[in-house]
Structure formats: C-alpha cells, structure tokens
Amino acid sequence: MEEKCIDCGECIRICPNQAKFAVTDGLEKLKSYKFTVALPAPSFYAQFREGTSREVVNAALKALGFDEVYEVPLAAEEVTAAIREYLKRNRDIRPLISSSCPAVVRLIKVRFPGLIKNIVPVKAPVEIAAKRAKEIIRSVYGITSHDIGAFFISPCPAKVTSVKQPLGTSRSYVDGVLSMSKTYAEVIKNIGSGDYNSIFKKSCGVGIGWGYSGGENAAIGTGNRLSVDGIHDCIEVLEEIELGKLCDIDYLELQACRGGCVGGALTVENRFIASVRLKKLAERLGIKSNVHETSIEKDFKKGYYFLEEEIKPTPSKLDDDMATAIKKLEMLEKTLKELPGLDCGSCGSPNCRALAEDIVQRRANETDCVFKLREKVRQLVAEVLDLSQKLPPTMEG
Fold first, then answer.
1. 291 three-state secondary structure
2. DSSP letters of 52-82?
3. What is the chain's percent helix, strand, coil content, to nearest 5?
C-alpha cells in the first residue's frame, strides 16, 4: 500500500523466506557521469573487521571506479552544528524531532501529521555531503555539477526513497543509491588496492557516531535529549508526544532501525558488533572537527542547511466523499467488534483494526482472519451434518 508504506525495511528484515528486497542502483550507473564520488554512510565503516582503516576502505572504493570519496560523517559534523544553532534559536516548539531518518519523517507525514511542525527542517547529512562534494569538485577541477555523479552507500531502503522521492526539496543532490551489502561484497575484493589520497577533509568521531543510536544526540551535546530506536518504539513515543507529553525534551533522535543505521536492512554485520566497532572508531578519532563553526554559522544564516519546501501530510482517508467516509467508519467499527482483537497478524494485516479497514475498503475478506474462518468452517460442518440427517421427501414413510 504505497500511500501507507514508509520504506522502513521492516518487511525485508523479518520475511522468513527472504522474498523481499530493496531496489537500488548498480555500479554500472557510474558510467553515466564524467566524474563520480562515493558517499559512504558512517555505518559502512563498521561493516569491516576491526583494524580496517577508513583510508583502506576508501582506497578500495576508488578501485571500484569512483574518482573520489566524500565521507558522509564529515557532513554530519556540519549538520550537528546547524542543529545546535537551530535549537538555540527556536525554543517555542518542544520536543524538536531529528530529520535524519527518512523512514521516521515519512511515518510522521503519514500517521502523525500534527507533529510535522516538530521536525527540524535541516537536511540530512547525505544531502549536505553530496552538495559539498560537488561544490569542491567543481571548484578544484572545473567540472560542472551535471557531469558529477554522487552515489550514496546506503544501510537502508528508506534512504533510496528519500533520493528518488525527496521530502522538503524538489530534487536530491544525490544521483544514485548503492546497497551497502552489495557494495561491501565488491569492496572486500579490492581491500589493499593502492593508496588513498583525496581533495576532501577527513571526518572525526563526532560525525562517525551518527551511525549508531544515540550518536547524533551525543554529537549535539546540548539540552535535554532522548534517543529511541526501532520503528515500534518510535511510534509509541510519537503517540506520547501527540498526547502532549515529553515537552521537557529539547531534541528527539528517532531511528526506525534497531541500533540506528548499523541495524539497517541493507547492512552486513550484526548490529551489536557494528555498533561497538563504530563507537571504538569514534573514540579513536576524537571530537576535534575539521569543520569550522564560523563558516557553518555563516551558511546557516544563508539557509544552506534548510529544506526548501514544506513537508506536507499524507492524509489517510476512507473515502473522498465525507458522507461515504462516515458510513465506512461506522462499518469499520462494527467489523472490528466482530474480530477477535488478538492482533496476531496471521491474516497479513498488522492488527485487527487494519484488517477491518481492509475489509471495508474491499481489499480483504472476513475469512482472511483464521479465527473467523474456523468459525465459518464450524458452521458449514454443522449445516452439512444437519443436512445429512434429513431424508428427501420421496424417501419418507
């Protein structure tokens, strides 16, 4: 159901038959550009065994055909400072919600439209990374932005959608999204291929920490902050905010995946191991940033980091006609009362209310519920048994 899907990747993660997969770009798309730059997410560096340096990984990426590598954690350092500045300047709405997880932003858009105003209107680090990379390449090599292809190495399908169908902007600066698992397989083959030199600066631990749950909040380091990971826990917290709670929290970091981006559906490594690796790497790199706060403040005032468009809600309606919608709502409530209310998910819907809505919208039948089906079968068996005991009129007497 496209209007309700938030591309969180939960279906990919839990499908026992691995029948679901995300559609991403392939390395062959690099040939469409004169100059290409890889944008590895912070979590990408956690996929490799401990001791594998970023330089070695970046060199392997260049061996795959990329001309340059711009570390997304470097852009995360800029975004950290921009969010800090936004928190300082905007104190009327609390809690403010991070915009870094596109699945959470889409969740709010679809299910909690009243909380759109709480989303910090700052672009995600990958967008700033693509934007900065193209600016620097254009300045150093004189190549037009049209000829530069920026490819994000993504840990989740939500970021694929955020590039193909961006929110808050008409067009993404990212030109393609590569699956982290597929890219990892190719990088492993090229580990140890040559030295790594780059026109870009290196990131520090502040940006690297964005790859695991709580890392973004640790980087911001100001005000009352709360970190929540896992789509179901995110929904629970958003419901609390709708009820007017959590007003004492300044900033809310919500991650749809358990453990943050290290737990994405397109990652390779176990999220617990990856999280430990990333934390160690962040500690080793330290918090001394290569990004200057004064230049960020200047760009902040220019609106460099902000979304250009308003995020609009996606209303979930039973029908366009109000009178019909009210009738359907009454039918939905009636249908819901007749269902067992166990929310077992056997019917294919996440809960009984969702099944009731599907029945009303004629996307499902009452007998899709195994309990209702069993009830119908029992009735049918009773009727057949009763019928079998009756003799036709011609055989009587």
1. coil
2. --HHHHHHHHHHTT-SEE--HHHHHHHHHHH
3. 50, 10, 40
pLDDT tens sequence across 140-199: 999 999 999 999 999 999 998 899 889 898 899 999 999 999 999 999 999 987 788 999
**Where does the pLDDT of residue 396 fall: very low under 50, low under 70, confident under 90, or very high at 90 and above?**
low
What sign does the CA torsion over 329, 312, 216, 188 have? Answer: positive
Average confidence (pLDDT) over 28-49: 96
- Burial status of residue 124 (CB atoms within 10 A of its CB: 0-12, 13-18, 19 or more): buried
Residue (of 301, 368, 308, 360) closest to 330 by Cα position: 360
User: In order of start, what are the domains of the chain with their CATH numbers?
Assistant: 10-302 (no CATH), 322-389 (1.10.15.40)
**Between residues 70 and 383, the one the model is more confident about:** 70
Nearest alpha carbon to residue 264 among 179, 186, 341: 179
pTM for this prediction:
0.84
- Cα Rg, the chain, nearest whole Å: 26
